Batch of 3 targets.
Target 1
Amino acid sequence: MSNAFGKIVILGAGLAGLTVAESLRAEGYDGAITLVGAEAHAPYQRPPLSKGFLLGTTQAAQLVMRSPELLAKKGIHLKVDAGATVIDRAARRVTLSSGEILDYTGLAVCTGARLRPLPLPGAGSQGIFGLRSLDDARTLATALETAHHVVVIGGGFIGLEVAAAARKKSLDVTVLEAAPRLMSRVVAAQISQFYHDLHTAHGTHIVCNAVVTELVTQDGRIVAVRTQEGQEFAADLLIVGIGVIPDTAMAATAGIVCAANAGNAISVDACSRTSDPAIVAAGDCTARHMDDGTWRCLESVQNAMEQGKSAASALLGRNRPFTATPWFWSDQYNAKLQIAGLSGGFDQTVRRDTPGAAASFSLFYFRNGSLIAVDSINQPADHTAARRILDNNLPLTPAQVTDATLPLISGC
Ligand SMILES: Cc1cc2nc3c(=O)[nH]c(=O)nc-3n(C[C@H](O)[C@H](O)[C@H](O)COP(=O)(O)OP(=O)(O)OC[C@H]3O[C@@H](n4cnc5c(N)ncnc54)[C@H](O)[C@@H]3O)c2cc1C
């Protein structure tokens, strides 16, 4: 397909879509590239939305990854405000919301994910917000200026980052988490406890085992939430942070195979290929096959970039499997959490403290004696070493972990 007659269409102008487009050029593809985005914006970074953007320390202009002009210089035709509505695989064409039809020789589906809706009556009332897009962040930032009692449903990464931003604005903040501890899907109890203490020390009220079952509204506005346990929390601003759903309805309707046990995300192999040889997929809309046989959505910057690069290669008939160790980060107050690897199924954890630094340590997860993941808090050197160890399958003993005077990588 690396000739001037190719027509590659990319659906979704987020990080994954942008990476596919730029990687195609980097690999020497000189045919047409059309990057189609449903939002009104050129590709922008999402992670700062729940961090500096809400605090006003990061401006919208700083989020832009590539301007339309820069993309045009690379021969990438960006169409914004242009959601695709239909993929016709037999005819190899997509229809946009405007009715325009784009033919393709290769298609990349990078449609990301959308907010999981709160399944309760009143969820559309005024004062209730989610955070996925720049437009969401703008609306939320404005609402935070006049709010008093903020309730966050969901003690995951985004809920906690938003809670920290709201507390920094001196608002009264309560986080309600249905599980027995914070971020329980991803981290071990010791890390959850660290964050519970951190948020509590900053004055946030954290309530775990709190399942919200009722939204109390007055004149169409949220005023309180009630939990299954019978507690009521006043709220003039409610943030729903209960995760996302892969945006794959269009792909599924077109018959592209999706993983029913992974939120119906598009099933891709390590090279980002889908069930259709002319179609690749990358980023939050995909599920990747794991070694234990399950399908998993990784929902991270690294995943969007690595799958995007693999997808571009696959469109050019090349193999570039994404095999690197997954990594992720989250910033809450003065604590930077960096995660390397996937800790699911661990049977042992070993803690490595940084001498003389109270809020700086790493937790190493082992399964059957082998390292599978490391969570580092304010310890970037451990994170870097962990990725090297996991990427290269280097040996590591618990003794090396516990004694912070010993290097993690022998010989370093
Ligand atoms: C607030 C927030 C904070 C985050 N913080 C972190 C972090 O600290 N670290 C980290 O690693 N990750 C973080 N993430 C996750 C990370 O941003 C995502 O994993 C990444 O943006 C995924 O990129 P993507 O291109 O797959 O999807 P998206 O960025 O969601 O882009 C997909 C795009 O496709 C568009 N689209 C959907 N349907 C169509 C259609 N039919 N036609 C055309 N376009 C369509 C969407 O409008 C969207 O613009 C955060 C995410 C959010 C929302």
Note: The mean pLDDT is 95.
Target 2
Amino acid sequence: MCFITRSIARSITLKSIAVTALLACSGIAFSHDGQTHPSAADTVMGEVRKIDTENQKITLKHAPIKNLDMPAMTMVFRVTEAKQLNGLKPGDAVAFTADTVDNILTVITLKAAAAK
Ligand SMILES: [Cu+2]
């Protein structure tokens, strides 16, 4: 959409129209804050390795995380709420979404999944 608007703007000699069109484009571009937001489509399969309820942390062996551009690995994530860890134990299969929150890799949604 932006591309077409810019092409039209370039072909029009009236500068004000071109500027208006470019501003409209910027508005569209900046309406997104540039951060990645996990959606249901970004759900990642993982296996619980360690639970640290006190520090709201979980160690997960996870499949590639597309929205974070991260390959499969085992790593520690923060959870947004300690209660997300309720009922989980090492060895459990989980389905989760993760994102960077305040520069910390954080599990956003987390639920037990059927074992593979
Ligand atoms: Cu990782």
Note: The chain has two domains: 1-34, 40-112.
Target 3
Amino acid sequence: MKKFSEEKLKEVERLKARYPERQAPLLMILHMACDEFGYLDDEAYSYISELSGVPKSKVYSVATFYSMYNQKPYGRYHLQLCKNVSCMLAGADDIVKYICDKLNISPGETTPDNRFTLSLVECLGSCGKAPAMIINKEYYENLDIEKVDKILAGLK
Ligand code: FES
């Protein structure tokens, strides 16, 4: 059964005491759950609901609204490349093709060694520095093929 570490449980209690509105710390608790469990599934939604006092249906609807909460197991490095207008106009299509060819996967897939998962996501809020991508929690902006190549080579 999924359960937070003692340290995370203390943090949840601290957040609940700080925010009288039950739903207020939900986004933070969802982040903690992704860190702890790797991704969110039905069992995780039940656990978070019980822990936060927020109805499970609300936990699910919030978690699935945002692309930052993993809904399935991903590779060690989760590449989330923006597919919105500013990034596409700045060359994101070429970067998607390059990453797919280099890793031999399509968007939504994970490499057989479980190192990389590629997802295409909505705007990352870096339109002024497009094309943009997040790998795990780190932002990479003003991407071009050369930069992507260096980034991928640097991931151990
Ligand atoms: S359109 Fe890509 S970051 Fe906004």
Note: The domain at 77-153 is CATH 3.40.30.10 (Glutaredoxin).
